[in-house]
Amino acid sequence: MISNNPSKTLTFQLLNTDTTPTLIATRASNAYSQYAKTETAADLGRSLVGVSNNARGDMQNLLSALDWSLDGPSIGHALNKLGAEAYNASARSSLKQQSEFNTLLTNHLLGYVRNVMSGVNRSAADPNGEATLGKWIGWGSFFGSTSHQGDHNDTSGYTSHGVGFLGGADKTLDSGLTLGLHVGFATSRTKVHGDHDAKNYSKTAFIGGQAIYAPEAWDGVYVTGQARVGLEDGTMYRRVALGAYERSNESRWTAPLWSALLGVGKDFYFDAGDGQLAAGPVAWLEYSALYRPEISESYGKATRLKLDATTYESFQSALGGHVSYEMDFANGTTMKLNGLAAWRHELAEGTMRTNAAFRSYANHSFSTETDLAGRDALLLQGSLKLTHKSGFFAEVGLGGETLRTASSSFNGSLTMGLEF
């Protein structure tokens, strides 16, 4: 055994024979994994040892960078960079965006709950208090959002920004049922932090339906639901730098996604000066899923990954309250303030899991897992709506999530609509 070994991963032995001394280099099974910060990184490290037995071309350069250019802690960081964690982060960001759509539509639908004190649907673009039953309300909403997940437990966080358009039409029937359709388009940019230099750009288009049922006979009780399906078009740029060794990867995919929500609540009504106040409990369950097909990276030579097809899921519960205040002005304009607060809890496992392998070495796969930082968060959503006697309305909404571990999000929207 040779002392003063300059490599943190190789073991050298000098064999003396009758003719020529021979220097033998070997890698132990834990040559790389011993420096891993997480079990996920250790799994990748063990796969690299298997890859090293058949390494060729640029993979030899990659292994040389690990064997000769890096100290122990740097190898731990390198294992994180080489994994598929960026794909987990981008999938979590996509599911969070679907949850934001659910919140925006829920807040919108609660505006159709019939005021049983007056016996009419005051919110349906009808400031004079005459029910607009059987007529369509068309609306369009421009929205923007930002979310931040900090690093936690050696797991890299991310920051995501998105903008888009959500539009639809609703119709209220005599029975107290309001139903409608919606379409949406959104773009987002997600940057992964920590050991990663990765950016994901995605475009999403979807279509769905929504409904709320609140008959007068139920005395303020209502049930609500929504569902949508869509497609995500994604592009990932991922740079890997290990000392002087640098490679850049790119991948593209088109993935179906879907989401559904079912909720129930009750409003109690009170006179409040010149207006009327409604408040009560609300609860719902929501499910979102994203199916990404097999993805193969390009351009990055040995660092290119081939990812297995994967379904990412989120199943959340929410329990909270809803409050609204509505009043009429002398000029026939109606103002409505709407507020929603709920405690959200993730019911699913919460771990994002992507199975992958270096593209030219599919027999040596590994799994990259990213845990959810926190299962609970406080959801807050509010809006101010002004409706003209002509039936035109404009609404400004603000909201977000807080109190989730090392995480926060914010969204804003501007909605305009018209009865027809």
Secondary structure topology:
Layout: E1 10-15, E2 22-27, H1 39-52, H2 58-68, H3 72-82, H4 85-110, E3 136-149, E4 158-172, E5 177-192, E6 197-213, E7 221-242, E8 245-266, E9 268-272, E10 275-292, E11 295-296, E12 305-307, E13 310-328, E14 334-346, E15 352-358, E16 366-370, E17 376-387, E18 392-404, E19 407-419
Antiparallel strand pairs: 1-2, 3-4, 3-19, 4-5, 5-6, 6-7, 7-8, 8-10, 9-10, 10-13, 11-12, 12-15, 13-14, 14-17, 15-16, 17-18, 18-19
Task: Name some characteristics of this structure.
420 residues, four-stranded antiparallel beta sheet, twelve-stranded antiparallel beta barrel, 4 helices, single chain, mainly beta, 15% helix, elongated
Question: What does the model show?
Answer:
- Helix 1 crosses helix 3 (72-82).
- A hairpin with a 2-residue loop joins strand 18 (392-404) and strand 19 (407-419).
- With 420 residues, the chain is mainly beta.
- The longest helix is centred in the first third of the chain and has 26 residues, at 85-110.
- The chain has helices at residues 39-52, 58-68, 72-82, 85-110; strands at 10-15, 22-27, 136-149, 158-172, 177-192, 197-213, 221-242, 245-266, 268-272, 275-292, 295-296, 305-307, 310-328, 334-346, 352-358, 366-370, 376-387, 392-404, 407-419.
Outline:
With 420 residues, this protein is mostly beta strands.
| Helix content, binned percent | 10-25%
Number of helices: 4
What spatial form do the alpha-carbon principal axes imply?
Answer: elongated
Largest sheet, in brief, is: 12 strands, antiparallel, barrel
